[in-house]
Amino acid sequence: MEDQATMHARSSTAYRGVALIYALVAVLVISVLVLGVGRLVSFHAVSESTAQGYARAIYCAEAAAAWQMARMSRCNLPGAPAVSGRLPWEVVNTWNEASNRPEPYVGPLPASDLGTSFEGTVKVWVKSAALGGVWTAPEDFVLFAIGTDPVTGIQRGITLNGTGTGLGDQYALFAQGTLLFESLPLTPGSTGVALLKMGYIGANGSVAFNTRGAPPQAQLPSQGGLFFGCRLGPDAVLQPGAGAWTAGWDIPRLPDVMRWPTIEDVLAYVWKGRTPAQAAALNDNVQIQYRNADGTFSSFSPPPRQLTAAEFDRSTSRPYRTIRIRARLDAPHHNLIYLENIRMRSTDVLILDLRKEFNDDRPTGIRILIHNPALGANEGPVITNLAYFETENSLAPGDQRAQSPSYIWFNNTSQPLTYRPHLALQELDRPPAEDPDDWNSANYRYRIRPSLRGLVYGMAALPAPDAGSVVIEGDPAAPAGGATIQSVVANRIVVRGRVTVNNAEPVESARDRHRYVLYYRVKSRSRGEILPNFTPDNPGFPMERGPVYDYGPFVP
């Protein structure tokens, strides 16, 4: 029988063995935990590096897209001579016309354009949205941009579908200085009211109202339909500041002033670098005609440089003295009408005729440039009664337009341009047959409307204080309820009396190759990871829909 000392020694040895086993198990467990934590940390580090690589790659692609759109927004029309501040279209084009394949810009973005060095590399190219091949300004476009992360080499791509923003796209009314609404009662009990029906209004200077007449005659501008709100520059003001006369209006601040091109800039862009004075040599004034007693039209000889009483008096009064400006699809300079002035009387009528064959969807328009830096006081342009070639559709009530509102009036004079219609809706005689596509059926007429379609543009660089200004006067007592205007962008705007502001249709078609583009904006956006079999000819990488970023106007 073992003694007590032996049994105690054997028990201690057993305890030490168990402790060793426990220690080994603990070490094993701790080692597994440390290994797991290490692997987890390593996995998270790799994941974080990958996520950062994805983010950096997409940032590179976004930067490349913004850079390319900025270049597109300040490029000239194809084949145009160099214009100060603009890039030749041939520099912006990313298509190899010889091979009819995309030829992307590859490399880091130029530090000279960004003002800082760029880390990473990009591929960026653009193609026509309509034809799928070479993009030419000012068409709609599809832009592809691929960014490569300089650390991980991960590539991400984005696709942007975009279109140009033209002179009349955004605003129904925009004043570089003051946008002034005046209530102007002309008869006892009548009221001048401005109805803002559709579109934005805005100003870099101020939006104000002035009630000319004692209450209750005076009324403030009212909104109806799809009035989108007011956009003010960062330093613009509302006058008077006291009171809630704009209660309910949506009035955000723009991050920067809205930068509009001058008329000189527009002419240089569209008409191959010409100045306003040089545009006289491009005149399409053979299209200006006066109306005869039998309803036919005859051309002036020589073509007139102004439309005043002398020119309107060439027309036989039946009951109005009438002059017609008719667009031609084959006009060599896109129907540019150069005038030194236009002053109409209350019984003068100017027809703006955009007739073409019914199934012909080629864009056309009339551009009237009134250029005269030396007009004296009370000698500024005055437009009264306008008529349009329209049809009455028996399938729908009312008059249906037979032509687009593609008219632009450039006021490049030292005095305000005044629109003051006097006649309500009336029909002129049906025009006699002139050629087979005139639509001379019983439903077609020249119709007088108190409506100024299209855009009146008055961003003039002339030093006179009223240069480029526009005054709209709607008679509150008129049976048709005043005047309707579509879009006015000018140095200073006065809306006086009963006027409806309705920017319902685009002034210019996106397919119009003579269209001035302020900047290009994004309509839709998607992105995805680049696959190994990617080629610029077939950028079929999986795309995820993403938010639309409007990169805004490019500020040179």
Residues in helices, as a percent range: 10-25%
What is the radius of gyration?
Answer: 34 Å
SS summary, helix count: 5
Number of separate strands? 34
Structural class: alpha/beta
In short:
The protein has 556 residues and is α/β, with parallel strands linked by helices. It has helices at residues 4-73, 89-92, 111-114, 263-270, 309-312, and strands spanning 95-96, 101-102, 105-107, 121-128, 141-148, 155-166, 171-175, 178-183, 194-203, 206-211, 222-232, 237-239, 288-291, 297-299, 306-307, 321-326, 336-339, 341-342, 348-353, 366-372, 382-383, 385-392, 399-401, 407-413, 417-419, 426-427, 444-449, 451-458, 470-474, 483-490, 493-497, 499-502, 517-529, 544-545. The longest helix has 70 residues, at 4-73.
Describe the structure.
Strands 7, 9, 11, 17, 20, 24, 28, 30 and 32 form a 9-stranded parallel β-sheet that branches. Strands 13, 14, 16, 19, 22, 23, 26 and 27 form an 8-stranded mixed β-sheet that branches. Strands 12-10-8-31-29-25-21 form a 7-stranded parallel β-sheet, with no helix packed on it. The chain is elongated and about 145 Å long. The protein contains 5 helices and 34 strands. With 556 residues, it is an alpha/beta fold. The chain folds into 2 domains: 1-166 and 524-556, no CATH class; 171-502, no CATH class.
